[in-house]
Design a protein that fits this description.
By secondary structure, this protein is mainly alpha-helical. It has a domain of 135 residues. Helix content is 74%, strand content 1%. The protein contains 15 helices and two strands. It starts with a helix and ends in a 7-residue tail after the last helix.
Length: 328
């Protein structure tokens, strides 16, 4: 069964790479020429990540609402058929399982399969991939998902080139999740990626550097993580090829805030993460999942700093941002 799955992924992505269109900056385009955004996938990923945080806090009502918000995005994601959507599902499956939410993983796996068959038809290549994925036996599920993810990433690099913006983004996501506990190997792979752009900043450069900064944080080298995050922020302002990248700006602030809090510079960390939340709300609105995710992090920090009253007030603010929905 895994071999059939890998073959289906290989065939699908080779065909897809012949159809997709990019502009001169390697930005993926829709048939009408506008940018093919990936907001649905990033929102889905953020909701699922927030769900694991809520599980740790034992806030099960909010957990259910958050998973419902994630499940509501599955249909639109399948319908949009963004080239990176499969990788986002893979990452969420692995992350939920590693966080002790294996039953939720199985629910999502089956839900994605059913929605794909309903929306795209059972003979569609996406539907066949999701059907094969749902047939994998449970003991080997995470291993097969990881192998499938690598297969998809390898095809993108082969078809688009290993320095292409989309291929690099796919590789970064794979490395970050699969090498999550092997920090030194992750660092080696990231520096190898970064060496492809050492002479001049390219489209993927900020993204690779941000992943490297996150790796430095995981290794406890917080001053280096802060240095890289600040370099990315300057790059996004100074280089024309990198301007307008709101997602990278926000993630640079996220990395910076975490490096500051781990260096016990609490006030700076709070100011930085609040700056990121303001950017998110101004760009996408108050109910955006990143805003909820970042404020949940800030709430945890406030409690760890014994600022209980402020943390309680922030929790009420977060509750008002998570609209009641049916539990998945």
């Amino acid at each position: 069964m895994p071999e059939k799955l890998f073959h289906a992924i290989d065939v699908h992505f080779r065909h897809s790479c012949q159809q997709i269109v990019f502009d001169q900056n390697e930005v993926l385009l829709c048939p009408d020429g506008i940018e093919f955004c990936n907001d649905l996938c990033t929102d889905f990923d953020s909701y699922c990540f927030t769900a694991t945080m809520l599980k740790e806090k034992q806030l099960y009502n909010k957990l259910g609402c958050t998973l419902s918000k994630a499940s509501a995005l599955v249909g639109p994601i399948i319908q949009a058929e963004h080239p990176r959507s499969l990788a986002y599902f893979f990452e969420v499956f692995i992350h939920l399982t590693q966080s002790g939410l294996f039953e939720v993983t199985l629910e999502f796996r089956n839900f994605v399969r059913d929605m794909s068959g309903h929306i795209r038809g059972k003979k569609d290549s996406w539907s066949q991939i999701y059907q094969l994925l749902s047939d994998i036996d449970l003991p080997s599920f995470v291993h097969v998902v990881a192998q499938s993810w690598r297969c998809a990433t390898d095809v993108l690099e082969h078809e688009l080139g290993n320095s292409h913006r989309l291929a690099v983004s796919a590789r970064l996501d794979y490395v970050k999740r699969i090498m999550e506990t092997n920090h030194s190997e992750e660092e080696r792979l990231l520096r190898e990626l970064l060496s492809r752009f050492e002479h001049i900043p390219a489209q993927p450069t900020p993204r690779v550097m941000l992943n490297l900064a996150q790796n430095m944080t995981k290794q406890g080298i917080h001053h280096e993580a802060e240095k890289i995050a600040r370099t990315v922020s300057r790059m996004l302002q100074q280089h024309e090829i990198c301007t307008g990248r709101i997602t990278e700006r926000i993630e640079a602030l996220k990395v910076l805030s975490h490096s500051q809090v781990l260096q016990r510079r609490m006030r700076e960390a709070e100011a930085t993460i609040r700056e990121a939340v303001v950017l998110i709300i101004n760009h996408w609105g108050r109910g955006h999942p990143w805003a909820i995710e970042f404020l949940n992090v800030l709430e945890s920090w406030l409690r760890s700093w014994d600022r209980i009253q402020e943390a309680n007030a922030l929790r009420e603010e977060i509750k008002s941002m998570v609209e009641p929905m049916a539990i998945l």
